[in-house]
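Q: For a teaching session next week I want to show students how multiple molecules come together into a single three-dimensional assembly. I've collected the sequence lines for a complex. Could you give me the predicted structure tokens for the whole thing so I can convert them for display?
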Amino acid sequence: MLKNNRFINSKLKARISLMLSDDFFYRLIRCGTLQEAVQLLKGTEYEIVNSCFSRTGDLKMGELGLFSREIEFYTEFESFFPNYLRIFVNALLMKYEIDVLKSAIRLWFDKNFRGRNINNRIGYIYRKSVINTIFVDQVINASSLLEISEILSETPYFLIIESNNDSVTKYKSLFLLETALDIFYFTELSKSIGKLGIKDKKIAGDYYSFVIDIENIKWADRFKGFDFYKEIDPSRIFIPNGKAISKVLFQKLLLAVDVDFINLIQPLFPYIAPTYSGSHIVDSYIDSLEKQLKNKIKRMLRGDPFSIGIMIAYFNLKQDEISKLIMILNAISYGLSEKRIKELL
Amino acid sequence: MIFPVKMKKLTVVLLREYTDDIARSLLELGCIDFITNPELQLYRDKDVNNSEELLRELIERVEIFLGMISRKEELPQKLTITDLQEINTDKFKRNLDRLAGALQKLRDEQRKIQEIILQQEEIQRQVEQLPDGVVSSGSTGLLDIHIGRISAVDFDSFSQAVSRTTSFLSETGNGDENSFFVLLTMNRERLLVEKILKQFNFDTSGFPSSIDCNRIYLIEKVTEAMDSFREKQDILNSDINRAIESKLDLLLGMWTDLSVNLLFIKVRSYFY
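A: Of course. Below is the structure for the complete assembly, covering every listed component.
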């Protein structure tokens, strides 16, 4: 086991050292036009954006290329993974599959509930199989959500879709359905963490339970924006296996706002000093929690070189790198100034 | 073993009015290795730093354009001080912006074609799933198939109307007064398509018997159409390359001017 981790981690560490530097991103931001920015990616591991853009002139095709590249980061070392790691990585990959499914269902929803024309958006959905086969075209063109659940009958998602049919129709919203898919992802991820060795289980468990806490805090805050939130059983939107946020506390958070909200969670994260000024105090507290998450990544990189921490750090850093790239390229294509892009970062 | 040449550390005091001449001479000689004096950093000319950054930015932009046509290797390996002349960076920037703008227009055309291609790909995926054998009008899977004719004079307007949907239209023949066609649409747009067909008096009778409309035939037709769109995109890409090629001398000249000026400014930046 140690031998495997050692081999994979040394490869991943080498990859991390080759990540795009801050200086590169600075040069990218300075590019006046999208085609100049995209050209700068030639020769990097995101060259696919340049090739897609040169062929089609379409940045969204480049983003689709990046999505497939991101999945490759998880799969390219698959043959070296021992079984317990493969289960863990597959659980992480499920997030991408769920993203694909969500995109397809959103198009179906936009067409059927909002009467929107979706023709120009269909081509940008990833169509290769991630873990299960998702019949994207059939999902988008389905006549009802029940039909979608039938289309997905060979996947673990069909029951989730079926059981959320009523809520989508009643509230004309995908929030509960998408939340259920996210809860499924985190539950499967927690199960896979349970199968890791003692040391890895602790490292991965510590990290992802913090991720779950942040997600629960976000949902407790944002769910209040929906008209139907008082009618819903809060346990439907609570992700289990968090470290600090219990179901009871989650229910209290759903009833609290601003300072009261912060006062409920502050004792759980004493190392974060809340800012009680400004109009978005919960948002800025969430930002601080996310910074802590990034610090955890840094600690993992400095920590045991043979643990699963290196792999978790690698996947997260690559994910951040791609998000940053997409954000900058879109900002340039919308004509945002260098100064404004820097502010957004 | 390689030993460094013995060097002497010099501190030179000179009148400001001679700085440009001195910098030029030093560049020509190319024999000085400048070192920074941290105590004098405060006195450094801030304008010099700003100009340096601007020149670097413009040089990178020129190199990016040359990289697009794989002509970076044509950049001069050696610069001479005789190349040094005053430059108008605003004018250079305007030139580069103008070129970028021209290229963007071509990219926009490519993107519009891409939208059509993506819609055709959706049709193609459905056509590939059709059963073997002769295809007739009706609905199969997610696809609606319409085989028939309309008045020939209306064909262009008809074609324009169906282009608003995800569809594939293939004219299969011309009668004296009629256009025969196969129209493939997605059944999610059935209402809209039926409205268009009604508007143009679509008639399912009289399709030429010489056409064997089957899965293979349709795959060939859709693929043919997509190949032609992709070809148009490739042509636009070649147009982009040509547009940059036509500015090659200008770009190479700009690069030389900018690079020599950058070197000059770098030497000047060691003057406090």
